Amino acid sequence: MELLWLEDFNALVESENFSRAAQLRHVTQPAFSRRIRALESWVGVELFVRTPQGATLTEAGRSMLDNARELTRRLYQMRADVQQVAGKASRTLHFAATHSLSFTFFPAWIRAVENGTPLEGISLHSDNMAACEQLLLSGEVQFLICHQHPGVPPRFDSLQFESKVIGNDALLALQSPELDTAQRIPFLAYTAESGLGRIVASHLHAHPDHPRLETVFSSHLAAVLLSMALQAKGVAWLPETLAAQEVAQGRLVAVGNGLQNISAQIRVFRPRMPLGDHGERFWTSLQDVQTA
Predict the structure, then answer these.
(1) What burial letters (b/e) apply to 48-57, b meaning 16+ CB within 10 Å?
(2) Quick count: other Cβ atoms within 10 Å of Cβ 17?
(3) Which of 18, 136, 227, 265 is most buried, most CB within 10 Å of its CB?
């Protein structure tokens, strides 16, 4: 048994697709598939049903899921605890944050949290939502910072994870003033790996009477969609924290046409299991932000 097999198992459960899971794990798909087969060989049963549409857990795989996630987190925590006892532990806080929040929200937020007393060490992993979730689930980071919306429940068991609100944001329906949406509304969409995409999809599902959108481009990066919107390629729901300057300058304007803005929270998630003295002190110092 190898730890990376459990990490691969968790990644495939989240993505339900061998190709996407291999990308999350930064290996080739054939190598990833061999490691999943090795895990199945070790436990002695098939854990996934393979179909052309992807991979889903067998009954045996479902019975293993909670233990696999918990064991992975505990192994990482055990290493941190042992290093702390030996006096070798780095007093570094490990964060994962989605791309848009890494560039726009995190720097100012962490300065405010430090409040003139710099933290000894900070490690920030920036990626799409699916990858960030995997980092937290596997125990490779202590904290995950992401957008959250009431219509999209977190993919974390509330018995094993908790969160605090650390900011508010809005996804603004924006377009270039040069874009003509009278005949059609070209839509700049988020991909399935994007947390913002889940929020937009939930909003559209809850408002089935919205104008018809014609998807012309997709990306998991809000910054890429912003760039395409500036080039009058379509309309996009963009975080206010990212697009505020372009809106102030008039380079992007509200779409109208019945497309509403979407309110969202910015939350930091952590596992309920102990994070060590340094991590727990940091968590205790955080104050919930009043929601808008």
Answers:
(1) beeeeebbeb
(2) 17
(3) 136
